[in-house]
Automatic annotation (TrEMBL):
Gene3D superfamilies: Putative cyclase. SUPFAM superfamilies: Putative cyclase. It comes from Geodermatophilus normandii. Residues 1-31 are annotated as: Disordered. It comes from the Bacteria. Residues 10-31 have a biased composition (Basic and acidic residues). GO terms for molecular function: arylformamidase activity. Transmembrane segments: none annotated. This is Putative cyclase. One of its GO terms (biological process) is L-tryptophan catabolic process to kynurenine.
Amino acid sequence: MPDPTVPDRTVPDRTVPDRTWTDPAELDRGDPEGAIAAAAKRCSNWGRWGADDVLGTLNFLDDAKRAEGARLVRRGASFSLSQRFDADGPQKGWRRRTNPVHTMLDTGTDAERGVQGFPHGIGGADDVIAMPLQASTQWDGLGHIFDHGNAWNGRRAGDVVTSLGDAVTGIETAADRIAGRGVLLDVGRALGTDGELPDGFAITPAHLEATIAAQGDTARVGRGDLLLVRTGQLTRARRSVAAGQGWGDYAGGPAPGLSFTTADWLHATEIAGVATDTWGFEVRPNEFDVAFQPLHQVCIPNIGLFLGELWDLDALAADCAADGVWEFFLAAAPLPVTGAVGAPVNPIAVK
């Protein structure tokens, strides 16, 4: 018998993706609950890959898609899309997130003084790091966000994530999956001023489609792709740091990002994952009078979509703009911390 506490969000039979998108002007700013519930029902992938599924949209990224991505390598030029992991990062304590603390356990000084206890003159260095798993460039796993107490695929949140971690959809389940065709949509360059969108700019499906049209065929987005969306906010934050003004609210304040109305677009395109150069992926402030990350609430527990945040897309974007090619091979495996609901990543794009 169905559990009456779990909404019926099984996947409807669809052979052609719905290409009608919600107009931002149609959003009722005073009713985030209604908008989230409606989008969650429309975009649900619950049951699509069976009741036991733990991969969500990574099911779209199969062996054929990985092979397709590998064939995109032509020049061998590679780009790390990771920000730094150090004490000078952008975190300032929001939600108890701090910058990484790196400490040496053994050093060259110890080796010189012969205090390490090794034979025949050998010495070494060793170190340790302490950090929140989402302090810098990272993936959100499927156990990161819940919708009314429900986790991905309709499971009860408390049956998935406990004080021991995520025993069902821990980030380690994605350790061998996230490699394939990457596509960069440089919305900041296409629509912004000097390559940057202002904080609070909501990127709609129309903006995404306009960027694809401007960039050409290599920017097409479809099933199994890993989509990267550049807003230019990181570029602006770096200027502030260089000017001695610090990171400001880059890791927790206002930001450009995806509009709530992109939920249907993200669902219909059947992408495997999406990442941005901002801390929260979606536009901040959000598009309702009182709401916190409503697009997360639809994307992660209902669509089963992996979200990446704090990615460094600037060097890759410059190269793509120079050669007019916006697709590449992308390898972006998360650190497989058992039971984690998110994890650091050093994504590598190869063209």
